[in-house]
Structure formats: structure tokens, C-alpha cells
Design a protein that fits this description.
Elements: H1 7-10, H2 17-38, E1 42-45, E2 48-51, H3 52-75, H4 80-99, H5 103-125, H6 130-135, H7 143-170, H8 173-193, H9 196-201, H10 207-214
Antiparallel strand pairs: 1-2
Helix pairs in contact: 2-3, 3-4, 4-5, 5-7, 7-8
Length: 215
């Protein structure tokens, strides 16, 4: 999910896609690797005992802040999702470490997907697609196509929120980490792959194609 960058920044703020991907997905990969190494360890800090998950979360927060700031510095732009994700990481990650309670961090994906699902729902009630505003630079669809995709994505986000609740409440901590690292990412990828027919049906015709048909 990518927001269009203002035209004045596009030429001056071009970033190597590999660097951009590393900044976006690197912190999550680092969290997963650190958890696998430290999940069975316990750390004593200030007379308090912290499990590996809490310690890894404490390291993830500054890493996420640093990667987001570097991404903003390089691109001159952050999407709404990137900003909101960072806020949730800092807030719920901070609560997790401060209260020594992993439940707060595990609730973060639920709230993130509820927020975006609700935002898309509000737009639909107003007869508009906020998704079209966010993704117009990445996709060219007719208005009715945007509305259908927005409705589907809204329900998809609500489904992910519910699924996250089921996994973190009903399964082991390690299962949730695997689900968070790989399951959610794969689910989003599969969702957009299954929308290929919609993209084809409601794609906007290029000017060249329209001229050819007219002639």
C-alpha cells in the first residue's frame, strides 16, 4: 500500500528499491531473528525479570523509529500507514516493556487493521474511496473498481484483525511471532493476487488504446 509522492519530490527523492524494502521490512526480519535467538532467555534489569519477547520488543522500538526516520529522510514522504504503524509500535511496544506484559504488543496488529478497515468503511459510507487517494499512483482503476476493491479490502482488514485476536489469544507466543512475521504478510500478498480479475475488468484504458479504438 503506497501513497503517491508529490511530483516535486519524485525526481529528487528517488530511492533504490532494495534500500527502501530493507528499511520497510528489515526491522520485522530483525525482530523475528532476535526472537528466535532469545525466546528462551531471561534478562534481569533493575531487579526485574524480562523474558526474551519483552527484550526483543524493547530493541525493536528504536530500530523501527530509526528505519522510519531514514526512510522519510531518503524519500521525503511517509504514508499514513507507515506513520500510524510507528505510533502503535512506540505506544504499545512501550507499554509492553514498561508493564512487562506482552499482551499489549500482540494487540497492535488488531488495532492497526481495525483502524484501516474502519477508515475505509467511513469513506464508503460517504460514497468515496479513500483507497483510491492512497493508491492512485500504483493502480489505475475506474471509480466503480475502486469502490469494489475498497469494500473487499475493508472486510479483509476486519478479518485480519479478528484472526490476530484468535492467534495471539489461543496459540503459543512462538506461533504468534511466526504468524505476525510471515502469515500476515502472505495474506496481504495473496489478497492482492486474487484481485487480478478486478484489476483487469476495471482498468482504465490508456490514451493510446483509446485513440486506436477511435480510429
Amino acid at each position: 500500500m503506497t501513497q503517491p509522492t508529490p511530483a516535486t519530490d519524485t525526481a529528487a527523492k528517488t530511492v533504490n528499491p532494495m534500500v527502501k524494502s530493507a528499511l520497510e521490512f528489515g526491522p520485522v526480519a530483525a525482530f523475528f531473528a532476535a526472537y528466535i535467538m532469545l525466546k528462551d532467555h531471561t534478562f534481569m534489569v533493575g531487579g526485574n525479570s524480562y523474558e526474551g519477547f519483552i527484550a526483543v520488543t524493547a530493541g525493536f522500538i528504536p530500530l523501527m523509529i530509526a528505519s522510519t526516520l531514514i526512510l522519510w529522510r531518503l524519500t521525503g514522504h511517509l504514508s499514513t500507514m507507515q506513520i500510524f504503524t510507528l505510533v502503535l509500535v512506540v505506544f504499545f511496544g512501550g507499554l509492553t516493556v514498561w508493564l512487562n506484559d506482552d499482551r499489549f504488543f500482540k494487540m497492535k496488529p488488531t488495532l492497526l487493521y481495525l483502524f484501516f478497515g474502519s477508515a475505509l468503511g467511513v469513506g464508503l459510507l460517504r460514497g468515496t474511496s479513500y483507497l483510491a487517494t492512497l493508491m492512485d499512483a500504483a493502480l489505475s482503476l475506474k471509480p466503480e473498481g475502486w469502490m469494489i476493491l475498497t469494500r473487499r479490502l475493508m472486510f479483509f482488514f476486519f478479518g485480519l484483525a479478528a484472526l490476530n485476536e484468535v492467534v495471539w489469544r489461543g496459540f503459543s507466543e512462538e506461533t504468534w511471532v511466526y504468524f505476525k512475521t510471515f502469515g500476515l504478510t502472505a495474506a496481504i500478498f495473496v489478497f492482492f493476487m486474487t484481485q487480478a480479475r478486478l484489476f483487469q475488468t476495471y482498468a482504465l484504458e490508456e490514451e493510446g488504446d483509446q485513440d486506436a479504438e477511435a480510429s
